[in-house]
Design brief:
Radius of gyration: 23 Å
Shape: flat
Number of strands: 0
Strand content: under 5%
Structural class: mainly alpha
Order of helices and strands: HHHHHHHH
Largest sheet: none
Distance between the termini: 40 Å
Helix content: over 70%
């Protein structure tokens, strides 16, 4: 069962990576080009020859990276679905996949991104990029831990409260932990003052759209395929026989 879910998750992850690479190519490449041009203008020394041209990096390199990332993310998504299956009340396969995708998007993408959003080339400071990366992954780890504790809290409260109230309390507990983490963790100011604001925000919106495409595809496609797989051949034969009997009668 788990093996079948992993195979399905990997295939869906490849699909998600392919769609995300198309979104990145359509929405983000113009901003990256403008950021690189801004960096070239500011550079005081001539740039050496590139190992791979920017055209290759923005097409083949982008697609390869997104496909590999989608493949890995799809496997992890399948494992998360296996853990959540049957533990979310009366939700079916599509509902469970949707909840897992939404929860993963919020905890893994939205929370860290809101505090430390992505920056295009030339908008990052080499002196602060290490600290920024560490703070980003620290917030990501805190978000995952807070989400796991919130799930456990919600399950524990279900015995005393109804499912809706338990979910609301657990969500508020998660948001409280995240708010405290945002207040404690320092901001990182690394964007040059003269960097074009429109390029910066367009790039960040494109990055957000790429992640949204990944997780939406995982939730919708994985849930749909899993729901279809639940229809056994016996059920199909029974439906066919029932239809034949009704026509003969």
């Amino acid at each position: 069962m788990v093996r079948a879910l992993l195979v399905r998750g990997s295939l869906v992850g490849l699909l998600a990576g392919a769609l995300a690479s198309v979104v990145a190519l359509l929405l983000g490449q113009a901003e990256i080009g403008q950021a690189v041009a801004f960096d070239d203008v500011r550079a005081s020394a001539p740039q050496g020859p590139e190992t791979f041209s920017r055209t290759v990096q923005s097409t083949l390199g982008l697609a390869s990276g997104m496909l590999l990332f989608g493949l890995a993310l799809g496997g992890l998504f399948a494992l998360a679905y296996a853990l959540a299956q049957g533990r979310l009340g009366r939700l079916g396969a599509r509902g469970t996949a949707g909840v897992v995708a939404l929860g993963g998007f919020v905890t893994i993408v939205l929370v860290p991104f809101a505090k430390y959003p992505a920056n295009p080339p030339a908008a990052e400071n080499a002196a602060t990029i290490g600290a920024r990366t560490g703070l980003y992954f620290l917030l990501l780890a805190l978000s995952l831990c807070a989400a796991a504790l919130a799930v456990q809290l919600g399950r524990a409260l279900t015995a005393r409260l109804d499912a809706w109230d338990a979910t609301v309390v657990a969500a508020l507990a998660y948001l409280t932990v995240i708010a405290l983490a945002w207040a404690v963790l320092p901001p990182v100011e690394e964007v040059p003052a003269d960097f074009p604001a429109t390029v910066l925000w367009s790039f960040r919106l494109a990055s957000f759209a790429v992640q949204a495409t990944l997780w939406a595809t995982l939730g919708l496609a994985f849930g749909t395929l899993t729901q279809l797989s639940l229809r056994s051949p016996r059920a199909d034969l029974a439906d066919t026989a029932a239809g034949r009997d009704s026509r003969e009668g």
